[in-house]
Amino acid sequence: MGRLTELQAVIFDWAGTTVDYGSRCPAQVFVEIFRRRGVEITEAEARGPMGRAKHEHIALVAALPRVAELWQRQHGCPVSESDILGMYHDFLPLQKQILAAGSSVIPGVPEVIDWLRRNGLRIGSSTGYTRELMDVVCPLAESQGFVPDVTVCSNEVPAGRPAPWLNLRVAEQLQVFPLHQIAIVDDTLVGIEAGRNAGMLTIAVSQTGNLLGLSAEEVADLPPDVLQQHLKEIEKQFLSIGADYVIRSVTELPALLISEGFHTHVRR
Predict the structure, then answer these.
(1) Nearest Cα to 136, choosing from 188, 92, 99?
(2) Number of other residues whose CB lies within 10 A of the CB of residue 235
(3) Within this chain, do residues 146 and 161 fall inside the same structural domain, yes or no?
(4) Is 198 among the domain residues?
(5) How crowded is residue 64: how many other Cβ atoms within 10 Å of its Cβ?
(6) What is the pLDDT of residues 148-163, one digit of tens each?
(7) Which of residues 43, 76, 102 is at a domain's end?
(8) CB-based burial label for 151 (10 Å; 0-12, 13-18, 19+)
C-alpha cells in the first residue's frame, strides 16, 4: 500500500461524503418503497447495504430474515425478482424527487476540493446512484461549488461496490496510476472494501455519513460525549475492515494529509 505523501488523486463518494449530510435521501426512499408494499422496514435495515448499486441494495434488504418473513406474511409468497424490479422502478422516480430537495453539498467540501487542486491532486468521484439520478445531483452540486473532474455511476460498470470497477474506471478516466497513489474517501463499509479491492488508500468518513445517519442539526443536538461514543464505535467498524484512516468529515482531509507528510504546494 502507498503513502499519503505519494498521492496523485482522491476519489470521493457522494451521499454522506460530499453531499446529503447523514445520507438521508436514499434511506428514506428504501423505507418508502417497501412501505408501499405493506412491509415496514427500519431505517437501520434500509441503511445496511448502503453504497451498493441500488437494485442489489433492494434485493439485500428483501433477503433479511425479518423482512423476508414480513413479506411472506403480507403477500403469501417469497419476494421474487419481479418484485425487486418493481421496487427498483419505483425507487428511481421517488429518489429523483427527494434528491432534488436533499442534495446539499456538505459544508466545507468545496473549500477542501479547491485546496486539493491547488496542491496538484486530481479529483474523481464514484457513486451507487445511476447516471439518471446523478443528472439530478450533479447540477445541484455544481451550483454549490462541488465539481469533480470525473464521476462514474453504478450502471456504467460491470458490478458496483465492493467490486473495484467504479474506482478503476475513475482512475482510468483520470489517467492516474499507480493505483496505490490514489485515495478513496467514503462513508460506507462497502465503499472502503471497494477501495481496498482496487489497491487504493482508504479514508473513511464517520460523522457525516451513513453509519451515523444523522443530519447536521441532529448531530448538533447530541451531547458531545454521546456523539464521541458513536464515532468511536463507527471508527472501530471501519478499522476492522481495513480502512487506512478515519476522519469525521471531508473537512478534516487537509489536516490528515499534512500530518501524514503530504507536501503542500499552496502559496502562502
Answers:
(1) 99
(2) 18
(3) yes
(4) yes
(5) 16
(6) 999 999 999 999 999 9
(7) 102
(8) buried
Burial of residue 198 (CB within 10 Å: 0-12, 13-18, 19+) is buried
* Three-class DSSP category at 39: coil
> pLDDT tens-digit profile of 42-54?
888 988 887 788 8
71 in any annotated domain = yes
Residue 268, pLDDT score: 35
Helix residue ranges per DSSP H, 9-108? 24-35, 43-47, 54-62, 65-75, 81-102
Active-site amino acid positions? 13, 54
Residue range(s) defining the domain that contains residue 85: 25-102
Same domain, 85 and 116: no
**pLDDT value, residue 2:** 53
Residue type, 156: E
For residue 45, CA distances in Å to 32, 169, 236 come to: 12, 30, 20
User: Looking at per-residue confidence, does 98 or 186 come out higher?
Assistant: 186
Mean pLDDT, residues 227-232: 97
Last residue of a domain, one of 102, 136, 156: 102
C-alpha cell at 4: 499519503
d(CA 123, CA 171): 10
pLDDT: which is higher, 204 or 261: 204
Summarize the confidence of residues 140-152 as an average pLDDT: 97
